[in-house]
Every structure is written in C-alpha cells, then in structure tokens.
Amino acid sequence: MSPEFRTYHEVDEVRSDLPDQIAAGDERVSVRLASVARVIAVMSGKGGVGKSLLSALLATALARRGDRVGLVDADLNGPSLPRLLGVAPGLLAESRDGFAPPSSRAGVRLMSMAFLVEPDRALTWREPADAGFVWRGAQERGALREFLSDVAWGELDVLLVDLPPGTQRLAELHALVPGLAGIVAVTIPSAASRDAVARSLDLVRRRGLPIMGIVENLAGVRCGACGALAPLHAGDAGSELAGRFRAPLLGRLPFNAALGAAADEGRLEAWLSGRESAAEGVRKMADALRAGAGTP
Predict the structure, then answer these.
(1) The domain 25-293 belongs to what CATH superfamily?
(2) Which class for 291: exposed (0-12), middle (13-18), buried (19 or more C-beta within 10 A)?
(3) Residue 48 backbone dihedrals phi, psi, to 5 degrees
C-alpha cells in the first residue's frame, strides 16, 4: 500500500475538488465498514500506559474466543502492533477488493504504518517546509481514512482501533465512523495518568460515545511467594475514573515480566493460553467486551 498525498501547493491548485474528494473518501469508509459489526476505539490520555499492548491482548483474546477481529494501528508515528502480534513487515499485498491485511497467529487482521515504512525509519510526509505543521494533520487524517477504506477487512465481529495518546485522533475517527460502538480507556494508577485520561473521557462524553470500560494497567506487582499485589504507583486511577464517568472497570492488569517478554517476541497468543491470573484477567476483559460492557 503506497498512498499518495498531495503537497500543499498541489492541493491549492485543485481547491474546489477537495471537499468532493473528502466526501468520496468518507463514503468509501462507510461502504467498507458495512460488513463490520462493531468498531471500538482503545485510547488513553498519555503515552506509556500500555495502551497498544492492551489493544493487542484484547484483539488476540477475542480472536481466541472465535470472533472475527481486525485491528488498526492508528499510532502512525509510533506503530508497535506488528511486533506485539508477531506479524513481520512487508506482508501487505494487494487483492481485488483492496489491500489484504496480514493476520497474526490468532487470526487478527492488522493494518499498521509499520507495513509502509522501512524498519527504523521515521515517518515523513510530503509537505512544504513553511507549513508542515498545518498540513501534516490533514495527511494523517487521510492515512487513517485509507486504513479504514482501502483495506479488505471482510466480515468482522469487531474492529479495534488503537489510537495514539491525546484526543485528536478520536475526533477524526468519530467523524469517519459516526456509528462508533464506544471506547475502552487505559490508565495506570497514578494521579497524573488519571487526570490525562479524564480529559480524554470528557471528550468521549461530549461526543455522546459509550465508555465500554476502563482498564488499569501496571496495577502492581504480584509476589511470587505469597501472591500479594504490591503497588508500583501511588493512586487508584482505574476505580476513580470508573466512578467519575459511571463506566465499568474491566480489570486491573499487574506488571508481568512473562507478558513483557511475550510482547517483545510476538507470543501474546501463547501467553494468553496460560493459566496465570493475569492472563485470565485479560480473557475476562475480552468476555466483558463481547457482552457489550458499557453500552447503553
């Protein structure tokens, strides 16, 4: 997949056609997603809380339950989902119906900017030096639109969208998918994370979107001898956010060294099949989403 974005000056020359082009792109998204039962966004208010890992875990757990699952890596500048899911770069192929998304071992269909740029290379855009900060946002919205419209997702029970930190991409996604089923918010226990995620959830509420659940990551570290959970961070952000926004607390995921190793090596499916309590907790989160947690 090699999307071609117009430069600022090229768009200026065909300004009258731009609204029609955008409308046509939005219509392609609507047609493509007609075979997708639910689109769910996974978001946070800040980076470093494990949001992408949680997205990969939920997608894998849902696929292991028998659901047809797609996953969009909407963090264009820091794509990490292919590594987490063990999907090698360079596997994106064109089909009659669009670009065929690679699948993980569990069957999760994935689209990521990591398939379009060379490894260890920064994402760059065609843009004028004096207006790049303005034009880059339009290009990123265009990339998200193409991830949704030009990929042959097929029939899916759920399409998860892993959003980058902040709120801008949520607004863009909601504009492209007005029927967004809802969001899952990821936090860590700290007050700083709580405040950042609360600002994101305020936007979710203002847009009238259901909060399907809160997940508290890095909720502590479990003692190997006694099983007790010792805190890693001060605070109780997951419960506080769930209470403030009247949303279910889907679960509290402790730090887990085995999970970290499995993520680095693309072995999340094997980790999820284990019998430890953390893996069982993720499976229960996926079951809650399947049951429609947080939907009105």
Answers:
(1) P-loop containing nucleotide triphosphate hydrolases (3.40.50.300)
(2) exposed
(3) 80, 15
